[in-house]
Amino acid sequence: MTSRRRRLATATTTTAVPVVGLGVLAIAFAVTLSGCGGQGGLESSGRTPSAVGPVRLWPDLPPATNPPIDYGENTTERVPGITVPGNDVHAVDPVAVVKAEVRAHEDARSGADGLYEETVRAIEACPANPGGRDRSGVGKGDCPVLAPYYRDLTGNGRDELIVGIRMPDQQVGVRVYLAENGGLTRIMSTVDQVVSVELAGRDLIMRVSSAGIPGYEYRTAWSWDEQQRTMLPARDEIVRVKPPGAGATVVPAPAFVSPTPTPATTPPPGPRPAPPADSSADSSEGTP
Question: Are 286 and 201 in contact (CB under 8 A)?
Fold first, then answer.
């Protein structure tokens, strides 16, 4: 006990001398600053604004009695007649996949399977494309099935198949397929007047023209929902884009993001029913 007290006393005594030295240095530093006219000193940036939290409006409103709509429920569909060896979508013919869906829903003109009649005829005329090896961007000839893309959108460690279908009036159908149990399940299907389609992480982002709102476009990020086991529009926004110059006309060019853009071809003529309605329907980024 005595030795510990001695150590404390010694420490106190030895630290008292530098304190005086520090005081002299502080006075000298202050004199130096005053001699420079205060340049380089700290300046106040003003008052910090107070944090304002969210304010709930009409807190006395009763809660809704109906549960929220489970958007995207029951929109997945097994593609008939398509087998996927080893659950590897790279081995699948994208044209065969689209043809299988067309033949299973020949008369569908709206909803997730809806296609224009002329688009259906053009798809049936598409040549086979085993394994998706032809990736020119527009298939062959007038085939409206665009070159496939691959990305792990579901986080399962395997690529999903992303297919685009060019349609009249600058519309593009976008479909995503998940390989599971030796077959294909469609987990996303939508049709819109597309400006561009992009892959960012595990999101598929669509930019589309805004009908009736000049100078704006819609941007929707489709993401995998594990509970619904489908791709859902997780984030949706209306974005102002630069308006065209005087007398200029901006026509969006529907296409997937591709290293080499390919000009769109004119779909075959024919009757046009009402445009298909949008519908939601799941991968590691591959080489286009």
Answer: no
Residue with tokens 């299988």: 100
**Cβ atoms < 10 Å from Cβ of 132:** 23
Q: What angle separates helix 117-124 from helix 94-104, to the nearest 10 degrees?
A: 130
Helix-strand-coil split of the chain, %, nearest 5: 20, 25, 55
Helix (H, G, I), strand (E, B) or coil at 224: strand
Q: Is 240 helix (H, G, I), strand (E, B) or coil?
A: strand
Question: Can you tell me the distance from the alpha carbon of 132 to that of 145, in angstroms, rounded to the nearest whole number?
Answer: 11
Tens digits of residue pLDDT in 172-216? 999 999 999 999 999 999 999 999 999 999 999 999 988 778 889
Backbone angles phi, psi at 215, to 5 degrees: 85, 5
Alpha helices (H) in the chain, listed in sequence order: 2-35, 94-104, 117-124
Q: What sign has the CA pseudo-torsion 86, 87, 93, 96? A: positive
Q: What is the pLDDT of residues 267-286, one digit of tens each?
A: 343 444 444 444 444 444 44
Q: Give Cβ neighbours of residue 201 (< 8 Å, ≥ 6 apart).
A: none
Closest among 278, 230, 283 to 78, alpha carbons compared: 230
Among 216, 217, 189, 193, residue whose Cα is nearest residue 204: 189
What dihedral angle (degrees, nearest 10) is formed by the CA atoms of 174, 180, 181, 185? Answer: -20
pTM of the entire structure? 0.63
User: What are φ and ψ of residue 206, in 5° steps?
Assistant: -110, 130
